[in-house]
Amino acid sequence: MTDRLLLGLGRYMIPIPRMLWRRLMQSNARKVRAGLRFMSEDHHRIRDFVVTELPRAGVPLPPESIAAVLDLAVSRVSSVLDELERHLTFVFRNDQGAVSWAYPVTVDETPHHARFSTGERAYSP
Q1: Would the pTM of this model clear 0.85, i.e. be above it?
Q2: How would CATH label the architecture of 41-124?
Q3: Under a CB-based contact definition with an 8 Å cutoff, are residues 3 and 10 in contact?
Q4: Least CB-packed of 30, 63, 66, 106 within 10 Å?
Q5: Is the distance from CB of 97 to CB of 63 less than 8 angstroms?
């Protein structure tokens, strides 16, 4: 693999100078880290759980089932889900309050499909 970045414009491929794209990537990485600082251990546990469990379950995950598996209070799970949605990160709940997608997977039908090495399949937002 080469250490180059090419930008496609129409039928042309234009090389982007290494110094420029590396600076942009470093800047973007700092912004992402700063944007995730609000997340506690519970935020990460809940987010990781729903990403893993949505493809297995194949249906939206209500806060009550998330709380039971992770041994957290339902109020804590609901609060964390509120914060994750408010920050526009990772999760979306349906009208019933159940998590229907957690990036990069969803149980809602979309044109995009994901297949995992474990055999699970899911849609992707």
Answers
A1: no
A2: 2-Layer Sandwich (3.30)
A3: no
A4: 30
A5: yes
